[in-house]
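Name: Chemotaxis protein CheY
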Amino acid sequence: MPSSARILVVDDHVEMGEMLKDPLTDAGHAVDVAASGEEAITWLRTRLYDVVLCDLRMKDVDGLDVLAEARKVDPCLPVLLMTAFGAVESAVEAMKRGAYHYLTKPFRLDEVLLYVERALEERRLRVEHQTLKRQAADRSGLGSLIGRSAAMRTLYGLVERVAQSDAPVLVRGESGSGKELVAQALHSEGARRQGPFVAVNCTALPHALLESELFGHVKGAFTGATTARRGLFVEADGGTLFLDEIGDMPPELQAKLLRVLEDGELRAVGADGARSVDVRIIAATHQDLEARVKEGRFRADLFYRLNVVSLRIPPLRERREDIPMLAEHFLAQARARNPRSPVTSLAPEVVAELARMPWPGNVRELENLVERLVVLGSQPTVDLSLLRLHASPGVPDMHPLAAAQEQVVPLRQLEGDYIAWVVARCGGNKTRAAELLGIDVSTIHRRERADGGISQR
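Structure predicted for Chemotaxis protein CheY:
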């Protein structure tokens, strides 16, 4: 029970309000008295309260109106309603709308104090429980992974088990599918959670700088090395180093990385000696590393070292049932980042359309689209016209098969529309589109000539 709580007393009879204020103040609480429901609503919107004690029958704005506003401002805020008319119907209605308790006038002051203290204690426990749940989610890292599909539930279970090991992990998945979030969850769920989590994208730096970034360098090791640098391996000592897009690491660095994995030692650029590091490696790639090994572009021994445990992140198209939940999550985030936007919701047909879209950019593409709709929207609810206006350029508004559900179209037209749709999703790359479709690229060119340019449909 808090030693001092902030309480709002609402009664259009000033004497009653003041009579309640005195014992509550004597109990150590800070008490505000509103002389009308309208005044109470104004205060609820501008001040924080721990409990509300409100008369039910008041002119213009009554206790049920105050209750509704209190629930809107803070769903956990306990509201005790008072009335001289102790009708059962009023009590039932008040409780249905979320009132904590119902007091019938005349009442004893000790009874009021008892219920106020009970309400405060329950509120404290509820807030404490929510805080612990939030902290647990943050600590586990799984709270950042969103989805209830079978594929995601399987992934959650694997993350929880794999996190307990120090073995290297190879996270596989398409671009934008959330590989770094999985890496963070693996770190936060494991014994290294108190240590640092350091991430680097192997494609984000020129190859000449990547070695220094990873392993560090001594002063004067090369032109421009005016100061020494520890490197990301040393920064991650005792924690986790996440190597994103490991498939693009140059061969000379692959050998050096293998040495660190085998010996736990590294040598900074220009250094005379080596130093030991204790780092768990989590690597990620969207590429087929087995194919790169066969091509001689990735070391087989390093692949086997990294691929002790392999986790596959499902692309968004394989877990479409998660799209409504993800869209609402990204909508809330975008609204927080853009508080002046009028957008507050997505129309049901928009959510349904989002669930039908192919999402080659996966979760990242969905997040970016929702943010774009929030930034550019001018109405509270995003409708289909706005969605189709701001979908990715060059991409048809609707999947051809979804469009065909609305009207019967000739098979040849449907085939042409689908080929055009795939070409558009591949950014106009007809060779890639042909590979995905399992046809020869000459087939696409023939269809273009016959149909007058299907890629421009």
